C-alpha cells in the first residue's frame, strides 16, 4: 500500500460521513480499510483510485469507491472553493504535504479519468453535476455523461446491467451506453450519451403544481396541466416493462414471496415512525393473491426524478434500485406494479414538496385539496397510459387482484421512504409517514 493511501485512511471516516452517497450521516464509522488501490496519474495533480471498506458500530460494513485528487498543500484552486465536503484533508505523501479531495470536481483529473474509461474519447469541457445523489456524475462537452458508482458490490451493478440489456433489445428511451469501466467482475463506472436539454420529471411536476397553487383552479383548468405528460409517461413505462421481460425473461410470480420480502424489509428498518403490526398485517394479506401475474426485472426505484423529458420524449434513468436494499434483492425479479407504485408515490411527493415551497399554512385546506386533486388526476392519467399498451396485461396480476398487489407495493414503498427520509432528509419524513397512515386507513 502506498504512503498516500495509508495517509488517507485516517481522514476518510469524516469525509465519508459528509457524503450523501455514503448514507452514513446518521451512523458511526469505527474504521476504514483499503481493499484495492491504484495510482492512475502520478505527480501533481495526482489521481488515485481506491475501493475502501467502512465498518460501522452496529457491526455492518459497506464498500465505497473513491477517486482522490492530490495537489500541493499550498495550492489555491478555484474548483475547491465553496466545496468543503469534497475535501478529504491535507495528507503527507512521498512528494510532500498534499491536499486530498474528490477528483471529480477537478476538471483536469475528470478528463484523466474519462481517458482511463474511454481512451478514444476526446473532450474539451467538463461539468461536474453537484446535486447530491447516490452516485457521482460528470458531463463532458454536453454530449457524454460519466456516472461513477459509489457503493460497489460483488457482481454486476443493476444500472449497468439493465441499461445494457434494454439497449440490446432495442429499447431506445434510455441514455445510450458508450463505454463501461469494470474491474474484478465489478462495475465501477458507465459512460453514456448525455440527454441535451432534458428536464427531470420531478421539476416538470413542480412547475405544473406552482401554476396550480397560484391559480387555485382545478388541475385540468390551471396552466401547465401535467396529465398529458403523465399519460405518455405511463405508456413509456409499460413499454419498458415489456422490454425488460424480453431482455431478462419472465417467470410465474408468487405473491407469497413478495409478502415475505416486504416483511423482511420491514424487520430490517430502524424507523419507529410506522405501526409495524398494522404494516405487517397488510403485507401478510398480499400472500392470499393467487393470480399474481409475472415476475420480471424492474427499475426498482422508479419515480419522477428518475425520468427525463426531452424534445424527443421521456427517457428512463438510473436502474440501480433503492440504494438501502441489498443488491441481491434489487436484482431479483418482481412485479411490474412495484414500479407503478413508485411513480404513483412520486405524484404525492411532488404535490407535498410544492406546498412546502410556498411556506404553506396548514390551515389552508383549499391548497391541500387542490394538491390531492392534482395527484389523483395524474395518477389516473399515468395508469390509463400504462394499461393502453398492448401486451402489458400479460405481465400484470389478474384484474381482480391488481389493486391488492398495487396497494401492497404502495405501502412497501412508503415505509421505505420513511426510513430513507429519516436518514437523509428528516425535514421531509412527514410526507411518507402521512402516506403510510392513509394507506393503512380502512377503505
List keywords for this structure.
443 residues, alpha+beta, five-stranded antiparallel β-sheet, 12 helices, 42% helix
Would you mind describing this structure in some detail?
With 443 residues, the protein is an alpha+beta fold. It is 42% helix and 21% strand. The chain has twelve helices and 15 strands. Helix 3 packs across helix 5 (227-248), helix 6 runs antiparallel to helix 7 (276-286) and helix 11 packs antiparallel against helix 12 (430-440). The longest helix is centred in the C-terminal third of the chain and has 26 residues, at 399-424.
What does this entry show, briefly?
The protein has twelve helices and 15 strands.
Helix and strand arrangement:
Elements lengths: L2 H15 L11 E13 L4 E11 L4 E12 L14 E7 L2 E7 L4 H11 L8 E3 L7 E5 L3 E5 L9 H11 L8 E7 L2 E8 L5 E2 H15 L11 H22 L1 E3 L2 H14 L7 H11 L7 E3 L10 E4 L2 E4 L10 H5 L4 H22 L7 H23 L11 H26 L5 H11 L3
Antiparallel strand pairs: 1-2, 2-3, 3-5, 4-5, 6-7, 7-8, 8-10, 9-10, 11-14, 12-13, 14-15
Helix pairs in contact: 3-5, 4-9, 5-10, 6-7, 6-11, 7-11, 9-10, 9-11, 11-12
Amino acid at each position: 500500500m502506498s504512503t498516500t493511501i495509508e495517509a488517507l485512511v485516517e481522514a476518510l471516516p469524516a469525509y465519508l460521513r459528509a457524503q450523501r452517497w455514503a448514507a452514513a450521516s446518521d451512523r458511526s464509522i469505527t474504521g476504514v480499510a483499503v481493499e484495492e488501490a491504484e495510482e492512475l496519474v502520478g505527480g501533481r495533480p495526482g489521481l488515485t483510485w481506491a475501493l475502501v471498506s467502512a465498518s460501522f458500530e452496529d457491526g455492518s460494513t459497506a464498500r465505497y469507491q473513491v477517486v482522490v485528487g492530490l495537489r500541493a498543500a499550498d495550492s489555491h484552486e478555484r474548483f475547491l472553493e465553496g466545496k468543503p465536503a469534497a475535501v478529504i484533508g491535507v495528507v503527507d505523501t512521498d512528494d510532500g504535504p498534499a491536499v486530498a479531495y474528490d477528483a471529480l470536481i477537478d476538471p483536469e483529473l475528470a478528463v484523466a479519468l474519462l481517458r482511463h474509461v474511454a481512451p478514444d474519447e476526446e473532450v474539451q469541457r467538463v461539468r461536474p453535476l453537484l446535486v447530491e445523489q447516490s452516485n457521482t456524475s460528470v458531463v463532458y462537452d454536453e454530449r457524454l455523461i460519466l456516472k461513477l458508482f459509489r457503493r460497489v458490490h460483488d457482481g454486476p451493478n443493476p444500472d449497468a446491467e439493465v441499461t445494457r440489456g434494454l439497449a440490446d433489445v432495442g429499447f431506445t428511451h434510455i441514455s445510450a451506453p458508450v463505454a463501461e469501466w469494470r474491474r474484478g467482475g465489478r462495475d465501477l463506472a458507465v459512460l453514456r450519451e448525455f440527454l441535451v436539454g432534458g428536464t427531470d420529471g420531478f421539476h416538470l411536476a413542480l412547475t405544473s403544481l406552482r401554476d396550480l397553487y397560484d391559480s387555485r383552479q382545478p388541475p385540468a383548468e390551471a396552466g401547465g396541466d401535467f396529465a398529458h405528460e403523465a399519460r405518455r409517461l405511463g405508456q413509456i413505462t409499460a413499454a419498458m416493462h415489456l422490454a425488460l421481460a424480453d431482455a431478462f425473461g419472465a417467470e410465474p410470480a408468487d405473491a407469497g414471496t413478495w409478502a415475505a420480502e416486504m416483511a423482511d424489509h420491514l424487520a430490517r428498518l430502524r424507523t419507529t415512525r410506522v405501526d409495524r403490526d398494522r404494516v405487517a398485517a397488510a403485507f401478510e394479506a398480499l400472500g392470499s393473491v393467487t393470480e399474481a401475474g409475472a415476475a420480471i426485472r424492474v427499475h426498482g426505484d422508479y419515480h419522477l426524478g428518475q425520468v427525463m423529458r426531452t424534445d424527443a420524449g421521456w427517457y428512463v434513468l438510473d436502474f440501480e434500485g433503492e440504494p438501502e436494499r441489498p443488491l441481491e434483492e434489487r436484482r431479483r425479479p418482481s412485479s411490474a406494479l412495484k414500479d407503478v407504485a413508485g411513480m404513483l408515490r412520486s405524484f404525492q411527493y411532488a404535490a407535498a414538496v410544492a406546498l412546502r415551497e410556498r411556506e404553506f399554512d396548514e390551515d389552508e385546506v383549499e391548497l391541500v385539496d387542490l394538491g390531492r386533486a392534482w395527484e389523483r388526476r395524474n395518477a389516473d392519467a399515468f395508469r390509463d397510459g400504462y394499461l393502453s399498451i398492448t401486451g402489458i396485461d400479460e405481465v400484470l396480476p389478474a384484474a381482480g387482484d391488481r389493486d391488492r398487489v398495487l396497494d401492497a407495493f404502495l405501502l412497501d414503498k412508503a415505509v421505505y421512504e420513511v426510513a430513507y427520509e429519516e436518514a437523509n432528509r428528516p425535514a421531509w419524513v412527514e410526507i411518507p409517514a402521512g402516506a403510510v397512515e392513509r394507506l393503512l386507513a380502512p377503505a
